């Protein structure tokens, strides 16, 4: 090979290397521009991914091709208005997805539907939703619906747990009288007698359509058209139940104590098992309220109660003076190493320094050092207290005022 040919080949190779590196740098710069804009819009319109979405689902940096999905029309508009001068292709998928057709409403038809963070049975459990609860259907993937619950929580639920409906079908369901199951656990039966076959299990809070009465049984209908019978002593008219709710501190504490000994279950919000915030959420639901799902969301609702000293440390004397029964106590496991640590736990204050919470199981502990049931770790990590009773915060909503519930 001549020296001239070698030089030409090396020159071309060098040019290709430089050009490829320049192209990669350009792609990376464009990606950073797209990412920065996505993050700016996300913070403004969807700061909490548990309730609002604005996230990448595809990022092809080499081709400058991106896909974002969102639940927020305003976020889509804001991004598109600011994106015009960025040399990339960005598609925005606004949920609910069009391929769901006109069946965008779901009614849960299992006693408890298990919601997960991804459309995968092996994924982390995020929450639960009770039978008869209306949800929004946003997306379908791998036999799962991405749903939104009455408190706004977004996660994945198996399609086998929910009946998809059109607006007209849901309106028909909502127009009918309902019963709510008020025993802790039980079952519905195929005939109005105890020896008949089980149709399904039931837990406190399950809601079904009332179609008639026979002897000592309610005749009911499921969202998926199954028929069954429930003992009258185990259920109430949904309207009577709502009208009878009296959310006093004593009633909230009584509801909380009714769950003593229940096992801790990550993501649990039913009497089958509860996590810490699922426990407080369930206690408030038993008293006719829909509240935020997670502890780090619950701490943002209600009225603040002063329980900290000037340096931000828990002050037991101030807490005993200012706390009232049924207030919520919030804890941050990382508080001792990070003063701004995220809230990770919640408890319901009973009074006299004691609180009830789900930690291993639902149990009662004290913040007083000389008490036999003193909980040192939780007491050291208290970061806030909130009062829900008497608050006008729209995040603390009566069941009858929540649009996902139809009280008939």
Automatic annotation (TrEMBL):
Domain NlpC/P60: 246-389
Range of residues in the leader sequence: 1-23
Annotated Pfam families: NLPC_P60 (PF00877), SH3_16 (PF18348)
InterPro entries given in the database record: NLP_P60_dom, Papain-like_cys_pep_sf, Peptidase_C40, SH3_16
SUPFAM superfamilies tied to this protein: Cysteine proteinases (SSF54001)
Gene3D superfamilies tied to this protein: endopeptidase domain like (from Nostoc punctiforme), SH3 Domains
Keywords recorded for this protein, A-Z: Hydrolase, Protease, Signal, Thiol protease
Similarity remark: Belongs to the peptidase C40 family.
Name by which UniProt lists this protein: NlpC/P60 family protein
Provenance organism: Sphingobacterium anhuiense
């Amino acid at each position: 090979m001549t020296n001239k040919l070698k030089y030409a080949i090396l020159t071309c190779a060098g040019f290709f290397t430089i050009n490829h590196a320049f192209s990669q740098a350009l792609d990376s710069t464009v990606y950073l521009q797209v990412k920065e804009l996505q993050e700016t819009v996300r913070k403004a319109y969807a700061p909490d991914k548990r309730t609002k979405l604005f996230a990448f689902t595809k990022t092809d940096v080499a081709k400058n091709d991106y896909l974002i999905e969102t639940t927020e029309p305003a976020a889509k508009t804001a991004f598109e208005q600011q994106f015009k001068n960025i040399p990339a292709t960005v598609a925005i998928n606004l949920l609910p997805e069009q391929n769901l057709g006109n069946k965008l409403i779901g009614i849960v038809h299992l006693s408890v539907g298990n919601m997960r963070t991804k459309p995968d049975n092996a994924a982390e459990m995020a929450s639960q939703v009770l039978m008869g609860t209306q949800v929004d259907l946003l997306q379908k993937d791998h036999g799962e619906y991405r749903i939104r619950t009455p408190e706004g929580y977004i996660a994945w639920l198996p399609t086998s747990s929910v009946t998809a409906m059109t607006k007209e079908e849901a309106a028909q369901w909502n127009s009918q009288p309902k019963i709510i199951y008020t025993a802790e656990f039980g079952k519905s039966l195929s005939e109005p007698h105890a020896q008949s076959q089980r149709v399904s299990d039931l837990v406190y809070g399950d809601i079904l359509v009332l179609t008639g009465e026979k002897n000592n049984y309610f005749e009911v209908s499921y969202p998926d058209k199954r028929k069954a019978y429930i003992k009258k002593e185990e259920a109430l008219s949904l309207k009577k139940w709502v009208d009878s709710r009296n959310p006093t501190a004593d009633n909230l504490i009584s509801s909380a104590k009714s769950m003593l000994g229940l096992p801790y279950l990550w993501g649990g919000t039913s009497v089958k098992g509860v996590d810490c915030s699922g426990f407080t959420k369930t206690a408030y639901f038993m008293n006719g309220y829909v509240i935020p799902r997670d502890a780090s969301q619950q701490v943002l609702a209600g009225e603040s109660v002063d329980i900290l000293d000037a340096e931000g440390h828990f002050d037991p004397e101030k807490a005993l003076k200012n706390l009232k029964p049924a207030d919520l106590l919030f804890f941050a496991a990382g508080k001792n190493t990070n003063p701004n640590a995220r809230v990770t736990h919640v408890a319901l204050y009973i009074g006299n320094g004691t609180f009830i919470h789900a930690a291993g199981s639902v149990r009662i502990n004290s913040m007083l050092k000389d008490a036999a049931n003193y909980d040192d770790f939780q007491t050291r990590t208290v970061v806030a207290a909130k009062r829900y009773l008497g608050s006008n915060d729209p995040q603390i909503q009566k069941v009858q005022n929540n649009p996902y519930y139809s009280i008939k």
